[in-house]
């Protein structure tokens, strides 16, 4: 469904250039539910905005379904955003119209694209557990309920892919669990591909695969050992809860490049260059041999 290779995004302002993505590789299968994690500034939102057609890539390849997002024309981009992708944000005020009811909010994107389907709008609200509140105005609903309306809206035009940026960022744990269960259900029922950007490792435990981004590059992948197991709560540590249910892999690109965590490099004293040996089974990276020799 999604295929990024060597994806680059550079933000340019008058006197400064920021390389937010520096050759990122990512493949997401149709029907997969996965999460992208990474520290603040690692490029998660930049990636999501490109996948959602809200921002243009600078270079590389990015294909979503039939669309090449590097070459797509502006008029095609409008169609792409309307039909292929649904968005859920942390701050749902962006999606919602407070003076309309929940049902009217869900119907709004349908009206805009000329495909009103009230039965489906009601079904979506039932799916997110708001059957009894669909005629309430938005301001009569709690924050968690509004977020569920936002999910129903994101699905109103039957997108093939749902992108969620910190979807549980401003709700409590119970609501967060409820939202993740809704994602899982629509993923199963509709076969929709779901990509969630999050800091929350407990939430990452509830998806099939987690891809970690560091400095605008995919660094590590965590694949669920037992796809039927849902992690109740992470312990907050990167190597803790996540690694109990997921197996960790370092990502190696086609050119053989991989990212070694900064902590590992510091621990063995590797700076600008390293020595690498292959012993027939293992590839061993150490501090440069010549420097060791210098010491003696
Ligand atoms: N419009 C912009 N103009 C200039 N620089 C930008 C712009 N948007 C993002 N950046 C920079 O690109 C880098 C990646 O930002 P991005 O928002 O994608 O990170 P993130 O991983 O989503 O962080 P967070 O978790 O804090 O949202 C950062 O250094 C950021 O300052």
UniProtKB/TrEMBL annotation:
Record keywords, A-Z: ATP-binding, Nucleotide-binding, Transport
Gene3D superfamilies per record: P-loop containing nucleotide triphosphate hydrolases
Keyword Nucleus among record annotations: no
One Gene Ontology MF term: ATP binding
Database matches in CDD domains: ABC_MJ0796_LolCDE_FtsE
Pfam families in alphabetical order: ABC_tran
Keyword match Nuclease: no
Domain of life, source organism: Bacteria
PANTHER family: ABC TRANSPORTER RELATED, IMPORT ATP-BINDING PROTEIN
Identification of the protein by name: ABC transporter ATP-binding protein
């Amino acid at each position: 469904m999604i295929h990024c290779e060597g994806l680059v995004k550079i933000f340019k302002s008058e006197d400064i250039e920021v390389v937010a993505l520096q050759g990122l590789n990512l493949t997401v299968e149709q029907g997969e539910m996965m999460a992208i994690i990474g520290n603040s500034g690692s490029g998660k939102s930049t990636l999501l905005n490109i996948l959602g057609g809200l921002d243009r890539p600078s270079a590389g390849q990015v294909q979503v379904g039939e669309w090449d997002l590097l070459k797509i024309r502006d008029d095609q981009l409008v169609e792409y955003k309307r039909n292929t992708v649904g968005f859920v944000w942390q701050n749902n005020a962006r999606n919602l119209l407070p003076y309309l009811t929940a049902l009217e909010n869900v119907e709004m994107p349908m009206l805009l694209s000329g495909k009103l389907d009230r039965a489906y709008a009601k079904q979506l609200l039932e799916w997110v557990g708001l059957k009894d509140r669909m005629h309430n105005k938005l301001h009569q609903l709690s924050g968690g309920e509004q977020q569920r309306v936002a999910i129903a809206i994101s699905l109103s035009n039957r997108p093939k892919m749902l992108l969620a940026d910190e979807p549980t960022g401003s709700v409590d744990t119970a609501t967060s669990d409820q939202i993740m269960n809704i994602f899982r259900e629509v993923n199963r029922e509709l076969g929709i591909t779901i990509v969630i950007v999050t800091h929350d490792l407990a939430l990452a435990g509830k998806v099939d695969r987690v891809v970690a981004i560091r400095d605008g590059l995919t660094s590590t992948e965590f694949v669920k050992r037992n796809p039927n197991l849902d992690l109740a709560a992470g312990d907050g540590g990167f190597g803790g809860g996540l690694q109990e249910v997921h197996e960790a892999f370092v990502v190696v690109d086609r050119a053989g490049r991989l990212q070694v965590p900064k902590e590992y490099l510091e621990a063995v004293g590797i700076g600008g260059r390293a020595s690498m040996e292959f012993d027939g089974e293992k590839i061993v990276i150490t501090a440069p041999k010549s420097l060791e020799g210098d010491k003696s």
